[in-house]
Amino acid sequence: MSLIYHKTCTSLSMILCLNLIFSQYLSSSSGIQQPSAYDILSDYSFPIGLLPKGVIGYDLDKTTGKFYAFLNGTCSFSLEGSYQIRYKSTIKGYISRGKLSSLEGVSVKLFFMWIDIIEVSRNRDDLEFSVGIAGAGFPIDNFEECPQCGCGLNCGDQRKVSKFRSTLLYLLHREA
């Protein structure tokens, strides 16, 4: 009798285990997916090109706006061979509609120094980047596509790079 009881319990355990695995499969393939980090940027009125391709995950506390975005490692690229951007493997800060503040993990190389970008604000069709005491503004359409680690926007399509170059030259000329 104990042998029958043991086989019945084993069979029941097997059925419960298969049921658990099957139900997890159904819930993950039911089409309900967490939005991507790029979707979250769009939800807060930012273009997806603020993050490079390859974000593997994120955390967002919707009540405080505290966020973390995770890359598979550090990411850097240059625009026009001299304007360099670097992302750490973890980017964090606070997000609200049209504003990223207390940023950590994104820096730009100015001359020979890496300077942290600490805030990004959207002002209509422009994005304003702050490094503390200084800042620069760029048209939002420069960030329609995500840059790629290693090659940035210059990954075989010269139109994107020349568009960014002409905007940067215009802004520098306007400031002078």
Automatic annotation (TrEMBL):
Cleaved signal peptide residues: 1-31
UniProt entry tagged with the keyword tRNA processing: no
Gene3D superfamilies linked: At5g01610-like
SUPFAM superfamilies: At5g01610-like
UniProt KW keywords: Signal
UniProt-listed Pfam families: DUF538 (PF04398)
Lineage: superkingdom: Eukaryota
Entry's transmembrane regions: none
Record's protein name: Uncharacterized protein
Lineage per the UniProt record: Eukaryota, Viridiplantae, Streptophyta, Embryophyta, Tracheophyta
